[in-house]
Amino acid sequence: MALTPGARYLFLFAHPDDDAFIAGTMRDLMTGGSEIHAVWLTSGGFLGGMKTREAELAAAMAALGLDGSYLRFARFPDLGLLPRLDQAADYVASLVTELRPENIFATAFEGGHPDHDAVNFLAFEGVRRSAQDPRIYEYPLYNSSGPLWHWKWRINAFPPSPPETLYNPLSHDAIERKHAVMRAYSTQWLYMVPARLASSHERMATRGEPYRLCPPDRDHTLPPHAGTLGYERWFNAFMRIRFKKFAKAVLEARGVGG
The whole model's pTM is what? Predict the structure, then answer.
């Protein structure tokens, strides 16, 4: 399904820098006449530096050309969305009710980071609570479904599962803006370097940024892919989050279990 030019879009992000993975699509939609609203549920800062992260975000959005009046910051705690899913879902529902987007983009449900997966759930739950009916798309960041020779990392690509991956080839302007956004997030170089390597000018022009339409019946209490999830493997030394904790939070936010 091709993206609709001239429509209203709501982009939901967990952290400053998540936007870098879909910034080219945002830019092309903007120049095509679409109305773009962007929301960050957290400002990063789990290890400190929240003000720095927000300053980088402001520079990134200036490079993208998105006016500050279309940006919102919820400032839920970084790595603190799970215990606040109900409150965050009400926040997203209020945005959907106010803005009435025809399309929502969210970070993918892919097991790379619990906040990314939480934002994906919040897109669904916010829509349900708002009684609106926008299409929900997702885009990948990173996950641990890759081949062994990549240390099981998969960057800028979904785990190999349905639904079908779609691609949005980018204009030269969008590619340049995307790369400028990446440069703005200088404190996040550990993520931006592999993201930049996976988004060369040629690849973005000929293939483009990956995204897909989310299935309406997605079950966020089931793991997004087989095997150990990324945040269980790579970051659990400080995250200390397992998928069963994520699934429990989802059920509680939906009013099931407790």
Answer: 0.95
